[in-house]
Structure formats: structure tokens, C-alpha cells
Design brief:
The chain is α/β, with parallel strands linked by helices. It has two domains: about 1-195, Rossmann fold (3-Layer(aba) Sandwich), CATH 3.40.50; about 215-245 and about 300-325, no CATH class. Helices cover about 50% and strands about 10% of the residues. The chain is built from 17 helices and five strands. The protein has helices spanning about 15-25, 25-30, 40-45, 55-65, 65-70, 70-75, 90-95, 95-110, 125-135, 145-150, 155-165, 180, 185-195, 215-225, 235-240, 255-275, 300-325; strands spanning about 1-5, 35, 80-85, 110-120, 170-175. A five-stranded parallel β-sheet has the order 2-3-1-4-5, sandwiched between helices. Helix 11 (about 155-165) packs parallel to helix 16. The longest helix is centred in the last third of the chain and has 28 residues, at about 300-325.
Length: about 325
């Protein structure tokens, strides 16, 4: 019986860490009968870097790109009957009704009899604090966290996903709360895959850490001028100082209350549909009550990394200009 395992995120629920676990255990998984197809980010995943996973293969197949090749043509199953894809992009990709219909047709065409989906959610205030970081770091954003909170509708999207995929006879949907399981993601993953824990990645590994307040404020200023520019500033800091202790920015109490109320109905629906131990916690944490002055400073290590990477970037631009001038 062919089985498909999809780890779909959503965003800011430890996806890069879980992809490091999958990539590092790839050969052992294959020995257990589960193929985790190769992808050009596999080497980075093994190294514990930020990755987008191998889910693009499935997205390409569903979109009919790459000459409309399907599972059989790509030999993704190989000698195994189980295949696994991981990408937080899958959560967003599978939401539209048109994609859902195409997905079910795809399962039928490729004779996949059972599909297992692992969806991780996160408590709302914790989610926006982390999501805002990502919005600044990799999204090129420059809004305040209050502005960011106004657009927060992740529980509404989770509700729709459960409605669309949670009651299908060929789909087993597993929903886990990252806020509860942040330090045991490897075990969550292998329980989902129905194998022993094959992880070769230490649970303490930090992938895609948050920015400190000083880092975030400077990245916002870069974004205002350059747009997306995390590769110049944020990425080197997070990659080279993964264990740096940082303090996140949280929304103020009134903003947090409004966010909870705007999403309450969706969260109540989700909580009724999943195990009580995985439910959204709608309480407003103490971090939203703080109104302390922010420490705007950089360590010597941070300054060394900032100087080296910005200097290297400027030098590369000078080299390109010099080459253009010499070609004239």
C-alpha cells in the first residue's frame, strides 16, 4: 500500500529543525521503508541551516510543471511504499479549493491509498512574536508589531485546513501544538512517521533563531531602503551566532487582546476539533504586560560579523561597478 507523509508546517513551528532531522536520518529512513527525496537544500539541512525542505517536488508535480512528471516518472517511491515531503509552503499551497481538488485527483492517479499530514500550530501571541521576527528578517518588512498583528489570521487558515482535510477517509491529519512540544520535535516527527527515533540532530540545535531587539531594529532600517535584505545582515548573524540569547518583541496588552478576540471563533473551532492537550492557549502572557526600556546594543562578536558581511557586500558591488566601467 502506497502511503504519503506530509509535514506541512505551518510557519514558525520548528520546520527547519525538523528538516534537519529528516535530512540527517535520510538513509536510516530509507532502510525503514520511507523515502525522503533529495533536494538541493539537503546539504544545508544536514548542516542545521535554514531550509525550505523538499516539498517543492510535490508542489511542482501538483502544478504540472517539469513536463508533468509524477511520482512514478520521478521514481520517488523507489523500492519503498512510503514517501515523505516536508515544507511549510505546503500548508499555504494546499489551502485553495482548486489545489485541494487537484491534490485528491493526484492521490487517485498515483494510487496513494493513505496520506498522513502533520500540521503544527502555535499559541497566538507566541506565533506573532516569532512571525514578526520572520517578517522583518526574511520578508523585508518594516511595519510595527501592532500593524503586523492587525493582519494575523493564522488560526482562521488552520480552521479551513481542518475543515478541508480533517474528515477525508484517506487522510490522517495529526495536529500538534509547537508551544507544547518545542523541545521534543524529533520525537513528534518519528511518531508521525511510525518509526523509532532515528534523529542524529541534538534537540538543543537552534535553527533560524530570532533576532535580538537591536538586530531587528537595524534590519528594519535596511528593509526600508533595500527591501528584502536579510542575506546581508540577519542571516549571517543567525547562522554564526545561533546560541545568542535574545529578547523577542511582543505586542502591547491592548493589541494582544484585540488579536485574541479577532481570532477567538477560529481558535475555538480548532480546539474542539483536536486533542485537548494540543489546543490553542488564548491567555495573554506576561511578556505583553512589560513596558521596560529596550537595550539597544551589540556585542563585539555581532559587530565583527556585521562589519565583515556588509564590507564584503560593498566590496562585491565595487567589483561589479569596476567591471562594468572596464567593459565600456
Amino acid at each position: 500500500m502506497r502511503e504519503l507523509f506530509l509535514h506541512i508546517g505551518h510557519g514558525k513551528t520548528g520546520t527547519s529543525f525538523m528538516q534537519s532531522v529528516l535530512a540527517s536520518a535520510r538513509e536510516d529512513l530509507l532502510s525503514s521503508g520511507i523515502n525522503y527525496p533529495n533536494h538541493n537544500s539537503l546539504k544545508d539541512a544536514v548542516a542545521g541551516k535554514i531550509t525550505s525542505g523538499n516539498g517543492i517536488h510535490l508542489i511542482d508535480a501538483l502544478e504540472g510543471s517539469r513536463d508533468n512528471r509524477d511520482f512514478d516518472d520521478l521514481k520517488w517511491f523507489g523500492h519503498s511504499q512510503k514517501i515523505c515531503f516536508s515544507s511549510e509552503f505546503l500548508f499555504t499551497f494546499l489551502l485553495p479549493n482548486k489545489t485541494r481538488h487537484r491534490f485528491f485527483e493526484f492521490l487517485e492517479k498515483n494510487k496513494i491509498e493513505k496520506t498522513h499530514i502533520l500540521l503544527l500550530i502555535r499559541n497566538p501571541i507566541d506565533q506573532v512574536a516569532s512571525g514578526y521576527q520572520q517578517f522583518i528578517k526574511r520578508g523585508g518588512g518594516s511595519d510595527t508589531i501592532a500593524q503586523y498583528c492587525k493582519a494575523f489570521k493564522m488560526p482562521v487558515r488552520v480552521k479551513k485546513f481542518i475543515e478541508d482535510y480533517g474528515n477525508h477517509d484517506k487522510i490522517v491529519l495529526t495536529v500538534k501544538n509547537y508551544s507544547t512540544h518545542a523541545h521534543e520535535l524529533d520525537q513528534i516527527l518519528f511518531d508521525f512517521l511510525q518509526t523509532e527515533n532515528l534523529s542524529k540532530v541534538p534537540p538543543s540545535l537552534k535553527v533560524n533563531r530570532s533576532l535580538g531587539i537591536s538586530e531587528l531594529l537595524m534590519q528594519k532600517e535596511f528593509n526600508k531602503v533595500l527591501g528584502k535584505s536579510g542575506e546581508i545582515f540577519s542571516d549571517p548573524l543567525c547562522d554564526q551566532l545561533p546560541d545568542l540569547k535574545v529578547e523577542k518583541i511582543y505586542p502591547e496588552i491592548n493589541v494582544a487582546r484585540k488579536l485574541i478576540e479577532n481570532n477567538r471563533a477560529a481558535m475555538e473551532f480548532v480546539n474542539d476539533a483536536i486533542d485537548v492537550d494540543e489546543a490553542y492557549d488564548m491567555a495573554i502572557p506576561q511578556t505583553c504586560h512589560k513596558n521596560e526600556p529596550q537595550d539597544i546594543s551589540f556585542t563585539e562578536q555581532q559587530l565583527q560579523i556585521i562589519g565583515k558581511n556588509i564590507g564584503t557586500y560593498i566590496q562585491s558591488l565595487k567589483d561589479k561597478i569596476a567591471k562594468l566601467e572596464s567593459d565600456l
